[in-house]
Design brief:
This protein is α+β, with helices and mostly antiparallel strands. The protein is built from six helices and seven strands.
Length: 216
């Protein structure tokens, strides 16, 4: 009697395992897919092209990047981590500009599509600002009105990305027309940043930010 009972248990286990495998196999066979439309719409593609022209070889641009690929929660326990991660799991950044060598995120860009401000849009903006501020990643917002102006994009990005080739850049002082030289700030809130200073200093004290971009 006991042997029959053992055989029945073995048969039940075998049946369950086989059934699961068959069901899993059938699910894959029954699942079919088709290619969706373009990843970006017309406005987003036009903006991406302008952004690529503005950034050039100084950055790699990635559109529609999920937030969890760029940032991760700082939490003291698993529950807090799970809650924080859930807030960003289904959200994305419009465009992420990365360092061309390391692909480390440098700047986040949010493109305003021109829709009226509603609850969903407001919540997204709050989340974006909070995430970028806490992760210390610069966030730049731009609208479709100005999205195709390459010069404007360069000015917005200049504070965060080196858009100037030092060997090619030649500047002259706007006060005395003397050549300017590059120096590095050694103190203050801009410590470590490069800037242009008149070569006649201290006789001429004119300076410029290193990444100021002028329209041609």
């Amino acid at each position: 009697m006991q042997s029959i009972f053992i055989i029945l248990i073995v048969l039940v286990i075998f049946f369950v395992v086989v059934q699961k495998r068959v069901i899993k196999s059938d699910e894959l066979k029954d699942s079919r897919y088709k290619k969706r439309a373009a990843v970006l719409n017309g406005q987003e593609v036009s903006f991406l092209q302008a952004l690529q022209e503005a950034v050039g070889k100084h950055g790699v641009i990635m559109p529609k990047v999920t937030m969890t690929k760029v940032v991760s929660p700082i939490a003291t326990n698993k529950k807090q981590w799970f809650i924080s991660n859930s807030r960003i799991a289904k959200s994305y950044f419009d465009y992420v500009i990365c360092d061309p060598r390391t692909l480390e995120p440098r700047v986040i860009i949010e493109l305003d599509d021109g829709r009226a401000l509603d609850k969903g849009k407001t919540e997204r903006q709050k989340l974006l600002m909070h995430v970028c501020k806490s992760a210390n990643i610069p966030l730049i917002g731009t609208s479709t009105k100005h999205s195709y102006q390459v010069g404007r994009l360069r000015r917005l990005l200049a504070a965060h990305i080196d858009l100037i080739e030092p060997d090619q850049e030649v500047r002259f002082c706007k006060k005395c027309q003397s050549p300017m030289v590059i120096r590095v700030a050694t103190q203050g809130e801009f410590k470590g940043r490069r800037f242009f200073i008149c070569s006649r200093a201290p006789h001429c004290n004119y300076t410029e930010n290193y990444n100021v971009v002028f329209d041609e």
